């Protein structure tokens, strides 16, 4: 069997896999992505956050395609939750890290959204192979060295790579090669029963695209508008109430809807979709878990392969794409010889764990039903350790995926965009005709200094908007202006 060689091989072409593959390929590295299914394929997880839409998707270069796809615009969330009997609404526009016109995310049909990201990966140079199932992760004594997979024609193949990325979601067991077993949360152990309806009501404008989340005795419902007429509806029930979703799914869902007056009212004129991809009533465990380690030499876990936290704040795709971006930064830094693997991946894991923990801790407080929303806002401020902003601002930052303070995720005109322009100009000069310039600019060190210099200049232009990025942890790394790599922190 001939063994192909790549810099990176990615197992799984969901949002995490296509994001990491694209961001590494954009830096000129050889990337293979193996996806078991042939896209478009169904997936749950339809409500996105601004950090994904305006941060990661912008870096991937799919903003225009997303805008053209006509996904419903989600300006925030509406909750019937906690002590207050009436629904309350938050708007992403409250976040200090978002500028007005960008105060939204999308509600997406995942078959379409994931396909956009996968096609984009291919167009950015990733070798994408669909219908290919990774069956085994290969190792020598110290390192992971590649994978074995079955191709679309049923042939067994082997690939070797400097890095293997497990982005294969919550079901595959590839992650076990990193070591240790999944640590399941005792607190979040629910089951979801969900389907699709035509003709459900909409919230009043301007919030008709909001996610509506409604707590009731057995758990809570999500109600997500996917078009003017199509709605994704799911009941999440606690483990103790699991018998409520056993047996005939249709009767079970109808009984749960009847338990919840607001959802009954919204679905009063609607009919359930019973054919096509949306015709099935599906059940999923949504147990929260994390792996004890997110990497080992030669292998990295991202997205649901690494961890999952209760879906009430729609954080799944955010954690998937954010972890993919952090992993890509680490891989790009190592493959370019900027730093060693341990330094780069320690930063990856620390940031990823911080983001997971912020959601986890906040969600524990959010399930306290005897308090009102002011108390939830206060909890958000507490878990994010945000001393700069008000409680509601901290809450909206957290639920918008922005609490890390990462400039590249923030939905505002930012220094990184201008610095990226400067970096592109430097790159252009490096490839230009001036024979005297080329050797100088081709030097990696000189280019880095020029790019950092660009960042300083932009700070002068943008004033207080251009805060210098600080490490998230003492002694940690900072992000390069274009968000593609890590840099050592040099205090001024
Ligand atoms: P996936 O999207 O699962 O992609 C993994 C890919 O890997 C798949 O395409 C699969 O075919 C492929 N694969 C698997 N095994 C192999 C293999 N051996 N070889 C090759 N390919 C393989 N998130 C949100 O953001 N918003 C929501 O509203 C939301 N609601 C949710 C509701 C519920 C009930 C649940 C359970 C989750 C929800 N999520 C939500 C979470 C979201 O579904 C996931 O977090 C997200 O899909 C993770 O992306 P991923 O790329 O890591 O994995």
Automatic annotation (TrEMBL):
Gene Ontology molecular function, alphabetical: monooxygenase activity
Give the stretches traversing the membrane.
none
Stored Pfam families: Trp_halogenase
The protein in question is named Tryptophan halogenase
Which Gene3D superfamilies does the record match to this protein?
A: 3.30.9.100, FAD/NAD(P)-binding domain
**Mind listing the UniProt keywords for this protein, alphabetically?**
Monooxygenase, Oxidoreductase
Instruction: Give the record's family classification.
Output: Belongs to the flavin-dependent halogenase family. Bacterial tryptophan halogenase subfamily.
Q: Which organism is it from?
A: Amycolatopsis vastitatis
């Amino acid at each position: 069997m001939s063994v192909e060689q790549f810099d990176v091989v990615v197992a799984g072409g969901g949002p995490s896999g296509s994001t990491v593959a694209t961001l590494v390929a954009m830096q000129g590295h050889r990337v293979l992505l193996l996806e078991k299914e042939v896209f478009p394929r169904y997936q749950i997880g339809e409500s996105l956050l601004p950090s994904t839409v305006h941060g990661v998707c912008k870096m991937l270069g799919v903003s225009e395609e997303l805008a053209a796809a006509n996904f419903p615009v989600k300006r925030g969330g509406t909750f019937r939750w906690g002590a207050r009997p009436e629904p309350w609404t938050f708007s992403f526009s409250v976040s200090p890290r978002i500028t007005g016109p960008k105060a939204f995310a999308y509600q997406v049909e995942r078959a379409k959204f994931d396909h956009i990201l996968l096609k984009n990966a291919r167009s950015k140079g990733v070798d994408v192979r669909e219908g290919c199932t990774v069956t085994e992760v290969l190792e020598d004594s110290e390192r992971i060295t590649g994978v074995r997979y079955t191709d679309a024609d049923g042939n067994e193949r082997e690939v070797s790579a400097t890095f293997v990325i497990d982005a294969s979601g919550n079901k595959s067991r590839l992650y076990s090669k990193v070591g240790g077993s999944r640590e399941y949360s005792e607190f979040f152990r629910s089951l979801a029963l969900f389907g699709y309806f035509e003709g459900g009501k909409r919230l009043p404008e301007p919030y008709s695209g909001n996610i509506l989340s409604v707590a009731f005795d057995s758990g809570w419902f999500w109600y997500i508008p996917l078009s003017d007429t199509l709605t994704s509806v799911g009941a999440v029930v606690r483990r103790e109430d699991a018998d409520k979703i056993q047996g005939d799914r249709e009767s079970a869902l109808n009984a749960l809807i009847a338990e919840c007056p607001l959802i009954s009212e919204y679905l009063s004129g609607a009919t359930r979709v019973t054919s096509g991809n949306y015709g099935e009533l599906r059940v999923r465990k949504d147990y929260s878990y994390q792996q004890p380690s997110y990497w080992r030499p030669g292998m990295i876990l991202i997205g649901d392969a690494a961890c999952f936290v209760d879906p009430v704040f729609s954080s799944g795709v955010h954690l998937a794409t954010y972890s993919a971006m952090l992993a890509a930064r680490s891989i790009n830094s190592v493959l370019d010889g900027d730093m060693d693997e341990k330094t780069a991946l320690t930063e990856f894991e620390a940031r990823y764990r911080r983001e997971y923990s912020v959601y986890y801790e906040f969600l524990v407080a959010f399930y306290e039903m005897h308090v009102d929303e002011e108390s939830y806002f206060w909890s958000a401020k507490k878990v994010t350790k945000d001393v700069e902003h008000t409680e509601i601002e901290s809450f909206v930052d957290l639920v918008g995926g922005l609490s890390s303070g990462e400039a590249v995720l923030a939905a505002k005109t930012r220094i990184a965009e201008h610095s990226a322009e400067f970096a592109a100009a430097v790159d252009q000069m490096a490839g230009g005709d001036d024979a005297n310039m080329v050797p100088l600019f081709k030097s990696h060190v000189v280019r880095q200094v020029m790019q950092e210099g660009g960042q300083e200049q932009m700070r002068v232009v943008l004033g207080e908007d251009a805060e210098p990025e600080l490490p998230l942890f003492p002694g940690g790394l900072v992000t390069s202006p274009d968000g593609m790599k890590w840099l050592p922190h040099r205090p001024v």
